[in-house]
Amino acid sequence: MTRLFLIADDLTGALDSGATFAARGAQVRVARTVADFPEALECGADVIAVATGTRDGSREAARECLQEVRALLAGREGLIFKKVDSRLKGHIRDELEVLLDGRTKELIATPAVPALGRYCESGHVTGTGIDTPIPVAERLGRPAVILDARIRAELDAAVPDNPATKDYVGAAGLAAALAHRLWPGTASDPALPPLPAPALLAIGSRDPITLAQVAALSGVPLAAAPNGEVPSILAAPVQVVQMTPGATRVDPARAGEKFAQGIARAVSEIPVATLFACGGESANAILGALGIGQLDLIGEEQPGVPRAQALHSGKVFEIVTKSGGFGPPDTVVKLVKSLAER
After folding, report:
1. How is domain 4-182 classified at the architecture level of CATH?
2. What string of H, E and C letters represents the secondary structure of 202-246?
3. Which of 93, 155, 161, 287 is spaced 20 to 30 A from 249 at the CA atom?
4. Is the model's pTM score more than 0.90?
5. Each residue of 121-145: pLDDT tens digit?
């Protein structure tokens, strides 16, 4: 069995990239934190992903965390894929230095995600959301074969016939190419079973893209959670709860914590079979409040919208996530419509 270890610096990255492997038929387990990683390593899945939560912290904390990850991987056979932000945010140089210390395999690197209009040209990140090209080698801080790519086929062709001879660092584009090479005989994006109702949509992101997606909804119960204060919620086939600004300004982190706790309380008080969590930090906090540390990815509900399952209160719980700044205007409308039709 081919085994791959995917190390991401946030939960969104672990889920988004992990979903590309699940879409090819691989069994994919995601550990929500490094503390959850030992249990995930023993589960027997093809792909084991971990979210280190180190992108926004200090360099020292990132290095310490990656040292722990490296120690947990010691003696285990498998490919290494270091998932990075496609705009190369975070402590990439430090994390690679720790994670790959002593490894002699050639490193293949590219942050290109052609499907999102983000490319790698002449060793620089370009495209959507990039005003000034970003030099890849400078951010890596170590020798690597940097792949230029504007289309998916260029990434597919660059992955060697024997992927185990290399280490990898990249975003969802390279993850998809690697998944295609490792599971070539499986049809991509197999049909997923319908999402079960009742569904609770927890909108923690304040990104303008998400706000527009929620504003496009109609005919769906929507409860506001000012400064993260989630009100009492009545059971409904589909219910939306959206964090909004309150009458007074509060610390965003505190509001997010309250929102996560309120959503977790709602899940315990009303029937919920599917949870849609929008916003990477919000999703992570909600799952933490629910005590969920292990997620089994089964694919994508929509492109770029991963779907997972987890055990909660002794039952299988469906979890759909979306990063705040991602998706076309009808992303949330499509999700609600699909639930209403089932």
Report:
1. 3-Layer(aba) Sandwich (3.40)
2. EECCCCHHHHHHHHCCCCCCEEEEECCCCCCCCCCCEEEEEEECC
3. 287
4. yes
5. 999 999 988 899 999 999 999 999 9
CATH architecture of 199-340: 3-Layer(aba) Sandwich (3.40)
pLDDT at 342: 56
Long-range pairs for 154-162: beta carbons < 8 A, 24 or more residues apart: 154/114, 155/110, 155/112, 155/114, 156/180, 156/181, 158/108, 158/110, 159/108
Strand ranges for 40-123 from DSSP E? 47-51, 79-83, 106-110, 118-121
Q: How far apart are CA 106 and CA 165, in angstroms?
A: 8
Q: Which amino acid is at 153?
A: A
pLDDT bucket at 187, cuts 50 / 70 / 90 = low
**Parallel, antiparallel or unpaired: strands 166-170 and 79-83:** parallel
How far the first Cα of the chain sits from its last, in Å, is 36
